[in-house]
Amino acid sequence: MDRKITIEKGNPDGTLTLSDKDDTNGISGDQITWVIAPNSGVASITKIHEKDDSNNVFIGEPSLQPDGSWMGTLINVEVVTIEKYYINWTTAGGGWLGQDGKGLPMTYDPKITVNPK
C-alpha cells in the first residue's frame, strides 16, 4: 500500500508539520511517499534516513523521485517496530525567514511504526 505524507509546513525551530501528525503507521512492504506542499516554507528534502540511535526501517534509504517527492519501502518485520528517523530539509525563504533565510539546512525526526503483515 502507498502511504503519502504531505509536508505541510516548515517551522522556525526546524520541526515540520506533517499530514500524519509526525506518526506514520505502516505495514511491512508499504511504500511511503513524502510530498512537499506548495507554500510550506520547505524548498527541498535533502535526505531521509535512520536516526543514529535507531534501526533502519526502510529497504535501503528513501530516494528522490523525478517529480521531487521522496519514496521509501518499509522492511518486513516480525513484531511491531517503532523508530524515529531524520528528514533533512532546506528552507524556502519568505514567510518567517524572509529571503535571507533561503536554503538553510534543517533536520526533523518524526516517528514511524512498522507492523507485520
Report how far apart the termini are. 11 Å
What would you call the structural class?
Answer: mainly beta
Query: Main beta sheet, described?
Result: 5 strands, mixed
Low-confidence stretches: none
Question: What is the tally of beta strands?
Answer: 10
CATH superfamily: Cupredoxins -  blue copper proteins
Question: How would you classify the quaternary structure?
Answer: single chain
Q: Which range best describes the helical content: under 10%, 10-25%, 25-40%, 40-55%, 55-70% or over 70%?
A: under 10%
- Main β-sheet, spatial strand arrangement: 2-1-4-7-6
Q: Based on CA inertia axes, which overall geometry fits?
A: elongated
Order of helices and strands: EEEEEEEEEE
CATH topology: Immunoglobulin-like
Task: Please count the helical segments.
Answer: 0
TL;DR of this structure?
The chain is an all-beta fold.
What does the secondary structure layout of this molecule look like, with pairings?
Blueprint: E1 2-10, E2 16-18, E3 23-27, E4 31-36, E5 42-50, E6 63-64, E7 70-73, E8 81-91, E9 105-108, E10 111-115
Parallel strand pairs: 1-4, 3-10
Antiparallel strand pairs: 1-2, 4-7, 5-8, 6-7, 8-9, 8-10
How would you characterize the overall build of this protein?
The chain has 117 residues and is mainly β. It has a single domain, classed as Cupredoxins -  blue copper proteins (Immunoglobulin-like, Sandwich), CATH 2.60.40. Helices cover 0% and strands 50% of the residues. It has no helices and ten strands. The protein has strands at residues 2-10, 16-18, 23-27, 31-36, 42-50, 63-64, 70-73, 81-91, 105-108, 111-115. It has a five-stranded mixed beta sheet, with no helix packed on it. A hairpin with a 5-residue loop joins strand 1 (2-10) and strand 2. The radius of gyration is 14 Å and the shape is elongated. The termini are close together.
